[in-house]
Structure formats: C-alpha cells, structure tokens
Amino acid sequence: MYGIRGAPYASLVFGYNICYIFSMDQQVTQRQNEIVRVTLIGSVINAILIVIKFAAGIVANSAAMMADGVHSLSDFLTDFVVIVMLKISSKPSDEGHDFGHGKYETLATTIIGLLLILVGGGILWSGAEKIYDFLVNGVELETPGWLAFGAAVVSIVLKEGVFQYTIYKSKNLNSEALVANAWHHRSDALSSVGTAIGIGAACFLGNNWAILDPLAAVVVSFFIFKVAIQLIKNSVDQLLESSLPKETEDNIAKLVYSFEGVKDLHNLRTRQIGVHYAINMHVRMDGSQTLDEAHEKSTQIEERLKEEFGAQTIITIHVEPWK
Predict the structure, then answer these.
(1) Cβ atoms of 275 and 175 closer than 8 Å
(2) Which segment of 16-25, 161-170, 220-229 scores lowest on mean pLDDT?
(3) Residue 97 and residue 174 in contact, taking contact as beta carbons nearer than 8 Å
C-alpha cells in the first residue's frame, strides 16, 4: 500500500498533467485553425470584389471605383499577412522564445494598422487632388456609369457582412488580429459607402455634382485613419510591454486576496503576450505554515487565475513570510 505521495499518486498526477497539456495544445491548434478559416472566408470575398470593382471601374469609367478596388486588394494582401503571422504565433515555446510566439499576432495587427494608414492616405490624396483640380483648375470631372454604383452597393453588403462575421468570431476566439482584420473589412465597406454616395449623386445630378465623389472619399479616409491609429496604439502598447489595464490588475488582486491566509500582495507586474497574459507577483502569507502548505496555497491561486484569464496565462508567484 503506497502513501499519498507514493507511486500511484505520482502516476495519477503525471497522467493528469500529460492530458492537460495535450488538451491545451489541441485548444490552441483548434483556435488557430478557426482563425485561419475565418480569414480565408474574408479573402475569398475580397478576391470576388477585386474582380467586380476593377471591371466596373473600367467599364463605367469610375476612378472612385478603381480606388475602391485598390482598397479591396489591400484587404486581400492583409489576409495573407494575418495567416502567415498566425501560423508563426501558434508555435509552442522554444529555446529562443521562452514565452512563446504570441507577439507575432500583435505584430500582424501592427502591420494591418500601417497598411490601413497607407490605404487611407492614398484615398485622401486621390480625393483631394480631384477636388483641387475641379475647384482651382476648373477640370471637369467625368460622370461615372450606373454599373459602378451597383458595384459599390454590392461591396457594401458583402463587406459589412464579412465584418459582422469576423468581429463575432474575434470575440469568441479572443484574437486581436481578427479584430484588426474585421475593421479592415469595415473600412472597405465605409470606403464603398463614400464611393456609392459620390457615384450615385453624380449619376442623379450630373457633372456639376461630380465633386461629391472625391469629397465623400476624403471623409471616409479619416474614418480609416481613426481605426488604424487605434489598432497601432494597442499593438505598440503590447510590444513595449505596457501593463494590463488597471481594472484587470484590480481583478487580479481581488482574486488573490480572496484566499484565506494571504496577508499582502505587492510587486504586481503584468503584461500581454499575444492573446495571453503574464502575471508576476509577491505574496505574503503566514510564516508559521510549512513550505508544503505555502506551495499548495500558491498552486490554488495560480489555478484560480488561470480559470479567470485562460489556461495559458503565465503566472509567477514569489511567496514571502508575513511578519
């Protein structure tokens, strides 16, 4: 008969840990595969819209629709950036990356934000140039055809649908890269709204109102800038090892203090690695308890934090005696 610390107990613990690790690996793989699947669905829609927009822009003689096609092309290229970065970020920890590869997903978000700024800048420049030529140089803007207006409407419907689907999945999968890509879809939808307004007004009212096309594009470009700046700010905060939000740290402290015997929590340090958290802390407990008891309490705290913030949360607890 073995004691509680004997071979049967050790085998049970070892088997539980192996199953737990295998389960976590499966969850990570499933998450990455689902993110890739969502991204691929968006890329198929983008490919269809690229063909529609460029064809409509050429046939209907619409520069605005051609610019909108370039925007969809940037979406299509962004999808590949997301997929490549996600494949890298899903790799487990190795000798050169003790905390895993999660920040590659953060890097993907940064790249998408930068691409959005370039796209917004291109739309702004093109629109402003046409407005200047019309108002200052007296250049007459050509009236686009109705085919371009129809293509813009199709783009709005499809891209808004893909945005709603992607943003919904991003919440379930807790993926910042999907959030960034979703907003890239929304920026394309907004761009198409501006294009539809400009093309529609020009078609209805004639050449005298053709300036509404580039004017709407300029307004849309500022919406794109706003989204891009927010995405880049969040990503840069992570890359620069910014702490987790105060409300999250307050929640961590509340959970730790809920354990009987915890006298003090200090030196709390937090950061985000991809979609996972890293939490370091010093905890003071009753100094009269045994090392075994202090270790058991620390394990309970660690398990509770992982229940709250995810099984892959990296937690380091330094135990000190309460004097």
Answers:
(1) yes
(2) 16-25
(3) no
Closest CA to 181 of 5, 18, 40: 40
More reliable by pLDDT, 59 or 32: 59
User: The tokens 């709390």 sit on which residue?
Assistant: 268
- In angstroms, the CA 34 to CA 27 distance is 10
Q: Please, which residues bridge with residue 284 across strands?
A: 264, 320
Joined together, the tokens standing for residue 44 give: 């198929």
pTM comes to 0.60
Kind and range of the H or E element at 280? Answer: strand 276-286
Crossing angle, helix 146-173 and helix 7-59, to 10 degrees?
Answer: 170
**Rounded CA gap, 127 and 213, in Å?**
8
Q: What is the pLDDT of residues 180-234, one digit of tens each?
A: 778 878 878 887 887 888 788 777 877 777 777 777 778 777 877 887 888 788 7
The single-letter code of the amino acid at 133 is: D
Hey, what are 163's tokens?
């945005």
Tokens of 114: 């930068």
Q: What is the pLDDT of residues 265-298, one digit of tens each?
A: 988 988 877 667 888 999 998 888 888 888 888 8
Whether 105 and 91 have beta carbons less than 8 Å apart is answered as no
d(CA 220, CA 212): 12
Q: What is the distance between the alpha carbons of residues 161 and 48, in angstroms, rounded to a whole number?
A: 14
Alpha-carbon distance 56 to 34, whole Å? 33
Q: Under DSSP, is residue 97 helix (H, G, I), strand (E, B) or coil?
A: strand
CA distances to 12, 111, 157, 186, 194 from 74, rounded to whole Å, are 53, 12, 18, 13, 18
Which of 5-14, 110-119, 215-224 has the weakest average pLDDT?
A: 5-14
- Which has the closest alpha carbon to 102: 28, 22, 23? 28
H helices present in the chain, as ranges: 7-59, 63-89, 103-135, 146-173, 176-205, 212-239, 246-257, 291-309
